Amino acid sequence: MKKITVVLILLLTAGFVYSQNIAKEGYKIANKFKLEGDEKWDYLFSDDTSSRVYVSHGTMVQVVDQSNGKVVGKITGLDGVHGIAIAPALNKGFITTKNDNLVTIFDTKTFAVTKKIEVTGKSPDAILFDSFSKKVFVFNGHSNNVSVMNAETNEIVATIDLTGNPEAAATDGKGKIYVNLESASSVAVINATSYKVEKVWPIAPGTEPTGLALDNETHRLFSACANKLLIVLDSETGKVITTLPIGEKCDGAAFDPALKCVYTSNGEGTVTVVKEVSKDSFVVSETIKTQKGAKTITLNKQTHHIYATSADFEAQTGTAKSKLIPGTFVVIDIAPL
After folding, report:
1. What is the DSSP secondary structure assignment for residue 313, as one 8-state letter?
2. Is the pTM of this model over 0.70?
3. Is residue 336 part of a domain?
4. Rounded distance, CA 209 to CA 196, Å?
5. For residue 303, is it within any domain?
6. Which structural domain range is residue 180 located in?
7. Which residues, at least 6 apart from 247, have a Cβ–Cβ distance to it below 8 Å?
């Protein structure tokens, strides 16, 4: 009888601990940081070393302290900001502006603009600093190519032709750059030192991929697609491992290597959380309600906070696009429980 009682107590205790762990999982909107300006937005970038998030916002980039939401700097005089990349060791930042085909280089300590470089393509959009090659890869959406810049000298050193218009990119930190090709529904693999496209992988049944993230440990790529699918690929072979449902109008993806979670930011007003159970097993663990228009995302891998941007819109009438309500632009801070 005593043995049975002990077993029951152990089982109940284990169940309590398990339920406590389950209760601690999940996410909540911790803050909404209101920023000035009523212009369009696109990519964000979390500089984890300084706990700052760089926010694209029309004619400027606003630099926000992640601890309190205060704007600690601005880079202004820009024409259609889209992407932001930071090279922490060089104290340099890089901003793409679609309307004038430029990359603006600035000092991350003073936020002063130091140089503007014209790219070798049209409509520079996504941008990536690769610490392995010390190059900046600028993905030109309307010319289907990549401008490669030496991050130390600010010189364009190569132009890489692609077979579709590029969207988000990821680096393995070992010489491989992966980029979504939206119009070709595929992922291209670029050698970071030879500047050659080594492979192009189809991602069917996914179409029109935008957001891209990478688990370097399990060699899994996560490509977020317009047809509401997250495609999981083997980053070494290109094999499609599985697909998972995500929200509508997704334009961003991020991966947390410590929590083993993939996040897709969906313009419908949600973030889909996908848990990596193992390298070949994934489940949708949660759908976080955010805000309509919050389609891009960045992640602080040290604090595990997720950031997205949006604003309030007037009620839609007929086929006309909803109008942005002035003074409502925010950075949404999503925290794990």
Report:
1. B
2. yes
3. no
4. 21
5. no
6. 41-202
7. 228, 264, 266, 267, 268, 269, 270, 271, 272, 287
